[in-house]
Design a protein that fits this description.
By secondary structure, this protein is mainly alpha-helical. Helices cover 66% and strands 0% of the residues. It is elongated, with a radius of gyration of 17 Å.
Length: 120
Amino acid sequence: MRGDRLRKIRESREISQRDLANRCGMGEKQIWRYENGESEPGAEHLIKLCTHLFVSADYLLGLSQEPGEYFQGRNLNNTQMDLISLIDKHTLASAISALAVLHDYMVDLEQEIIGPMRDE
């Protein structure tokens, strides 16, 4: 795997090594090892990295120059990625957490859009 690509795509998504490790169910040091070429992920970890970074395995493996169709057109912010991560867990607790995150996100969005209109 190309550790430089993993780091680049992770940083472009504004995700810390710790956050990526938590989302993928691995240790933060493991992400560091992958990024610095000290270790190679197995298939299961590669799939988790690709899923949570919205990138193709071919890109991380250095087989293509583009992040892949999986990512095209998607510029997700951290809240949106957190929601997807929670939904991917397929548990009632994560679904409830996702609803709480979505509620807060929508309240913030409403204030951002409608708030200025109320002030006029």
